[in-house]
Amino acid sequence: MNHKENDIVLPGETLCTYEEYIPAEWTYIDDGIIKSAIHGIIKIDEINKTIAVQAPNTPRRIKLGDIVVGHITEVKPHKALVTIKKIVDSNRGIVAGYKGYIHISRVTNDYVSSMHDLFKIGDIIEAKVINILGSEYVELTTAEIELGVIKAMCINCRKFMKLTEGNKLSCECGVIDTRKISSRYGGY
Q1: Distance between CA 34 and CA 9 in Å, rounded?
Q2: What is the rounded distance in angstroms from the CA atom of residue 103 to the CA atom of residue 178?
Q3: Buried b (16+ CB within 10 A) or exposed e, 100-129
Q4: Rounded CA separation 117/123 (Å)
Q5: Rounded to 10 degrees, what is the CA torsion of 155, 159, 160, 164?
Q6: How confident is the model at residue 58 (pLDDT cuts 50, 70, 90)?
Q7: Is-contact 80 100, C-beta < 8 A?
Q8: Which residue of 36, 95, 136, 188 could cross-link 160, Cys pair, CB 3.0 to 4.6 Å?
Q9: Bridge-partner residues for 17, per DSSP?
């Protein structure tokens, strides 16, 4: 064995022979020698006798239950489309450009007649992933109190709006509006 656990290796670097360990993630066999396929850190499983290379600080894939931050790109009568930018509590960006949607039945536990009353294009939201529909498309909910719009843009001047009494949003240009406000609304 040429390396030990947590050593940093480069692509093509020899890790060990095929007789010592079974190759796992990000490794390959070349003429009976297990080599690293990527730059990363060696991980050894002594119980299963495997050796793998873990990329340092790899981006995360979205999974069920994740809280994500994104912005509204389109509002239709029964759903809002979202471009997801970040997973909350993750220090890295996401793997791919995820898109998602919030169906009118998943916005709040109360009756909603139109999505246009709750979201506007450009609003920044926090939502929870409730279904993964493909490799880059997810279904979201904002029904919990801490989920919803965390920054709202004025439909008139496009500046961020301030939260006022009665959960109304006001802008310095005089517009007053409503949204599905998160308990973590940031204002401006």
Answers
A1: 12
A2: 18
A3: bbbebebbbeeeeeebeebbbeebbbbbbb
A4: 12
A5: -70
A6: low
A7: no
A8: 188
A9: 33
- Residue 106 tokens read as 């998943």
- Three-class secondary structure of residue 5 per DSSP: coil
The predicted model scores a pTM of 0.69
Q: Give the whole-angstrom CA distance, residue 34 versus residue 67.
A: 38
Enumerate the β-bridge partners of residue 185.
none
**DSSP code, position 60:** B
Distance between CA 135 and CA 51 in Å, rounded? 28
Beta bridge partners of 86: 69
For 142, 144, 156, the CA distances from 10, given in Å and listed in that order, are 43, 45, 53
What is the CB-side half-sphere exposure of residue 97 using CA atoms within 13 A? 2
Token pair for residue 8? 């940093």
Residue 94's DSSP bridge partners are 60
Sheet of strand 22-23, all strands in order from the earlier edge strand to the far edge: 8-9, 40-45, 50-54, 22-23
- pLDDT tens digits, one per residue of 132-162: 998 789 999 999 999 999 999 898 998 899 9
Residue 57 structure tokens? 């600080």
